[in-house]
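Review form for a predicted model. The reviewer records the input and the model, then writes brief findings.
Reviewer: anonymous (R2)
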Amino acid sequence: MSYDTAIITTSEDKGKKIYRQKTYYTLTLIEDVIATNKDEADKMLLDQGGIDYQAINRELAHTTCNVDTFFIDADYDHAEAIKCVGVVDEEGEVVDCDKE
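Model under review:
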């Protein structure tokens, strides 16, 4: 039975072993969205925000011919409530929500 890895081995590797470590990371994603109200912001974040899971695959981890990333995943845990952090004023500048 062969071991599922993309590490390249040659006859010079005879006697060496393949080791695998599984490491868990917490991923924090903070997104800003411009919207008319909180409901629209929530919908936009659901539809257009979040993580591009396809980009996570091999682009996130460092891989060489001796070290291969076998698996990467990001699982949703929870999110804080949406809150206003800025408002675009007449000049197009963003000001604090309290100043609107």
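Findings: The mean pLDDT is 83.
Further findings: The beta strands are 87-88, 94-95.
Recommendation: see findings above.
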